[in-house]
């Protein structure tokens, strides 16, 4: 299976859309899977079991969040190498990343399995839920190496320009998990009822089966990034690549930490206004998860496309991909925001009774907050573009400023004066600050000169003329000689 050149030569709008839709589908599948599993556990195993899985899933989210940044660094390096048609470099990245991910996941699994009781105790897990949480979390730790490597393979494929294959196998994993949950929880025929252990075991089996099937298919297709017997020496870590994985991956992972930690603090502020307000905020935030999905999918897709175009030296396409990504965010996120506004009460009624007082509060929260996710979506798309060059510190700083220095202080300081309104209005304020800072960095920052690996300047841009049926002005005078071919190199 040869590299697909569509990300560097295909029509930008259609290519970005077709690349984004499978990523969006994967995000939706993951969320639905978690929701369905929670229904099985909560409805049939009780509140203690649901509390156990909730505590365990917080730990899992943290562990996956840390590895997210390293996976994204791997995706960007592969994308740049594939865009520059340097397949050997892409294979070196795959070899080093494989060794790193396997080693990291096994270490995390062993330490987590041994210290599970201590981790749960540090989280003040309720006594009635602790024994169940220990059983559940230890099985999850056994599954962790497969989860990590599954994530690594999917991100590698996206870096190579393939978002469909990860979606198909995510669908397989989710279907297996959903089907196996009730079978293993309650038992069927010779299979004994395993309770909460069955729910965790379903995840383990689903992830392992999907991973094995995906790798088998890739070998059958003879994917160009697969390592064969004569290339096993590439599994020996390349220190430059390893350093880039860590130095570029950690800031991107820390972005997840900034977001999740600020959400925890925000929840503690909401809790001070009583259970009705907390319930309203909880159901509103359930809807926000889905509203943000298009921007997250487009941002991830922009990263993959920009990385390949940076590797190919096609800087005019980089700008166009970013512009189209922002347009898609406005259309897709805007459509969902409008839909929720129109059906505000009905959508909230899926989680709360129609006569619940919390619905009125949740409606007001949505009225104040929802529109701001369009702005934050612009920020996500810009982050996707700039980090594809290796510029990862600026997005981290912008997120920290908007969430920890603007949003949280605003909610905390104005709380005594305007009550819970300070929390709701802190979201639009944070989004405005983040989008202004990100646009400023995109326009005036030095992200175009960033690099994820120390490489020599690209000798020649690879690709065809712009695919918009119209010529695009070059960004600098030095590119003028290439304008007739629609190719521009990075400004020197």
TrEMBL record:
Region annotated Disordered, chain positions: 466-492
Main location: membrane
Biased composition (Acidic residues): 475-485
Domain of life: Bacteria
Its membrane topology: Multi-pass membrane protein
Subcellular location: Cell inner membrane
GO CC annotation terms, alphabetical: plasma membrane
Transmembrane residue ranges: 58-79, 100-121, 133-153, 165-188, 194-219, 240-270, 290-312, 324-344, 364-385, 392-410, 422-442
InterPro entries assigned: MATE_fam, MdtK-like, Membrane_Transporter-Flippase
Keywords: Cell membrane, Membrane, Plasmid, Transmembrane, Transmembrane helix, Transport
Pfam families in the record: MatE (PF01554)
GO molecular function: antiporter activity; xenobiotic transmembrane transporter activity
Protein name per UniProt: Multi antimicrobial extrusion protein
Native source species: Cupriavidus metallidurans (strain ATCC 43123 / DSM 2839 / NBRC 102507 / CH34) (Ralstonia metallidurans)
Lineage start: Bacteria, Pseudomonadati, Pseudomonadota, Betaproteobacteria, Burkholderiales
């Amino acid at each position: 299976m040869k590299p697909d050149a569509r990300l560097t030569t295909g029509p930008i709008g259609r290519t970005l859309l077709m690349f984004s839709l499978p990523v969006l589908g994967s995000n939706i599948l993951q969320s639905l899977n978690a929701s369905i599993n929670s229904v099985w556990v909560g409805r049939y195993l009780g509140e203690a079991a649901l509390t156990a899985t909730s505590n365990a899933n917080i730990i899992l989210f943290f562990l996956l969040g840390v590895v997210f940044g390293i996976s994204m660094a791997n995706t960007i390096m592969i994308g740049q190498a594939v865009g520059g048609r340097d397949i050997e470099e892409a294979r070196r990245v795959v070899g080093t990343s494989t060794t790193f991910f396997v080693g990291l996941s096994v270490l995390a699994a062993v330490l987590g399995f041994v210290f599970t009781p201590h981790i749960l105790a540090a989280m003040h897990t309720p006594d009635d839920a602790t024994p169940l949480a220990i059983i559940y979390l230890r099985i999850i730790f056994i599954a962790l190496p497969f989860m990590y490597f599954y994530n690594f393979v999917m991100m590698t494929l996206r870096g190579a320009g393939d978002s469909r294959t990860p979606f198909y196998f995510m669908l397989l994993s989710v279907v297996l998990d959903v089907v196996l949950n009730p079978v293993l929880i309650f038992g069927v025929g010779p299979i004994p009822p395993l309770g909460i252990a069955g729910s965790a075991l379903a995840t383990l089996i689903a992830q392992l089966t999907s991973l094995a099937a995906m790798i088998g298919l890739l070998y059958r297709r003879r994917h160009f990034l697969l390592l064969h017997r004569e290339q096993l020496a590439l599994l020996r870590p390349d220190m430059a690549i390893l350093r880039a994985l860590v130095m570029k991956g950690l800031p991107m992972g820390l972005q997840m930490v900034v977001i999740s930690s600020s959400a925890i603090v925000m929840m503690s502020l909401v809790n001070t206004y009583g259970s009705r307000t907390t319930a309203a905020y909880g159901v509103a935030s359930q809807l926000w998860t889905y509203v943000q999905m298009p921007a997250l999918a487009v941002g991830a897709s922009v990263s993959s496309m920009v990385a390949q175009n940076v590797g190919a030296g096609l800087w005019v396409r980089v700008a166009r991909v970013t512009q189209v990504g922002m347009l898609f965010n406005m259309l897709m996120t805007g459509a969902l925001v409008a839909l929720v506004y129109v059906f505000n009460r009905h959508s909230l009624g899926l989680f709360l009774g129609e006569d619940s007082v919390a619905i009125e509060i949740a409606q007001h929260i949505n009225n104040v907050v929802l529109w701001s996710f369009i702005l934050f979506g612009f920020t996500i798309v810009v982050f996707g573009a700039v980090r594809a060059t290796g510029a990862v510190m600026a997005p981290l700083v912008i997120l920290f400023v908007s969430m920890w220095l603007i949003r949280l202080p605003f909610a905390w300081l104005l709380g005594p004066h305007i009550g819970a309104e300070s929390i709701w209005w802190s979201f639009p304020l944070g989004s405005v600050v983040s989008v202004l800072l990100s646009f400023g960095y995109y326009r005036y920052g030095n992200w175009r000169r960033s690099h994820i690996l120390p490489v020599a300047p690209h000798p020649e841009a690879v690709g065809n003329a712009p695919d918009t049926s119209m010529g695009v002005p070059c960004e600098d005078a030095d590119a003028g000689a290439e304008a007739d071919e629609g190719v521009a190199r990075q400004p020197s």
